[in-house]
Amino acid sequence: MTPTATAAAPAAPAARPEPVPAVLERLRATFRAGRTRPLAWRVEQLQRLRTLLREREAEAMAALRADLGKPALEAYGGEIGFVVAEIDHTLAHLHAWARPEKVSTPLANQPACSTIIREPLGVVLIIGPWNYPLQLTLGPLVAALAAGNCAVVKPSEVASHTSALVARWLSDLAPDAVAVVEGGVPETTALLEQRFDHIFFTGSTQVGRVVMQAAAKHLTPVTLELGGKSPCIVDQKVDLSVAARRILWGKFWNAGQTCVAPDYVIVHEAVAGRLVERLRATLTEFYGPDPKASPDYARIINERHHRRLVGMLGQGGQVVVGGEHDEAARYIAPTIVQDPPLDAALMTEEIFGPILPVVTLRGLREAIELVNSRPKPLALYVFSSDRAAQEQVLAETSSGGACVNDTVAHLSVPDLPFGGVGDSGMGAYHGRAGFETFSHRKSVLNKSTWMDVKLRYPPYGDNIKWVRRLIG
Ligand code: NAD
User: Fold this and answer.
1) Eight-class DSSP state of 429
2) This prediction's pTM
3) Handedness of CA 328, 331, 337, 343 (dihedral sign)
4) Which residue of 163, 259, 380, 412 sits with most ligand 1 atoms within 8 Å of its CB, as the best mutation to test the pocket?
5) 335 and 368 share one domain
6) Residues 221, 149: contact at Cβ < 8 Å?
7) pLDDT in tens, 65-110
8) Which residue is catalytic, options 150, 232, 259, 403?
């Protein structure tokens, strides 16, 4: 195990990494000393993080380009600017969120005052994936710091440039309260052996199970932001041009490597042919005749994932658009596969890449049945101009989140809690939901002593008749 703890002052290349237990002990001492509790401290850290994101934006863009070939707009909109917006929203509301919340006190407990106090949890662990390596480490960190916690951040080793950048940046932020441990499975396994006060994991459902099992040993609560296959239902009453643009934007942004990307489309047979034609034309509008030459199209993270994705092609269904690939360039063309068999890998495994299956069904009922026959997805999209159809899909399916007539964009609304359900995860964050995730809601009854009704004390005599009246 060779964890690279970067919490201390920027280490010289040959410096020995600080062992994980020592990192934790240092952070725990900070937390126990109460240094992270004052709102002023929390605000200061968020402002400093904001400054880092603003002043060193070019550095972040370069790391994201090196890892994923992220176009500048996607790097800004999905990572840098996204976290800045989350910080701004948090700074605007933090004092209100952190205020003790008064609740009513029943007569039997009067005279008294009841409040819910949000207290920080302690030292939390944040484990990130590679697809949004900045947003999905710094975003949860914003919530953890806002709630007054210390945090260990473990970025994904797969996005190695951004992992190094996160380690560099955070080593300057608050060295006794925030630490970064870089590495892969052995380093994460070593971290998971430790006792944390909360674990916030973003990644695959499979590794989510590993995390939850490790957390159970210490009774550590977990937030699991997992993956899955997010369906996109296209009804017959629909503006096909708008639908095509919004589906393709959500699917091919970051070359399909987005947890809430529409994984597959289910289209009403009455509009299937026209939808595929619109999708084809819109792809050309987006990326030109040769998407490989487009500056607006990202690359696959590594060769392993490239091979996995190419392996999914050629398993049935007709490739109607794209299909070209180049492993050396980590390029897969935006690809549409029409009507693959429902038991093909494309329709049973999370795709997480630029391949869009379009499945034709006879109507909403069949679409809903198909969705409900599978694990609950992280997101579900429905395109329809018919209010009844929109409501039917929302009422009869379950998903972490949903958009009507759009894809992906719900996650940019900070007041909408973002998280999964069932196999796509548990718990949520963004905005107030993130602050709540990293806070304990302590219930406090504060009683006055000027009156002490004796009914509850022995000897009870026939007090029960009064107790009945009081309690109801
Ligand atoms: P992953 O589960 O392979 O890795 C996530 C993290 O876990 C990484 O930091 C990795 O180092 C660590 N890890 C990997 N294997 C481990 C093991 N055996 N034991 C302990 N730690 C281990 O996920 P990924 O490939 O980085 O990301 C892709 C997945 O993440 C997709 O399924 C995607 O849908 C999901 N995802 C979900 C969200 C969300 O918000 N719900 C966001 C992005 C990605």
Assistant:
1) B
2) 0.95
3) positive
4) 259
5) yes
6) no
7) 999 999 999 999 999 999 999 999 999 999 999 999 999 999 999 9
8) 259
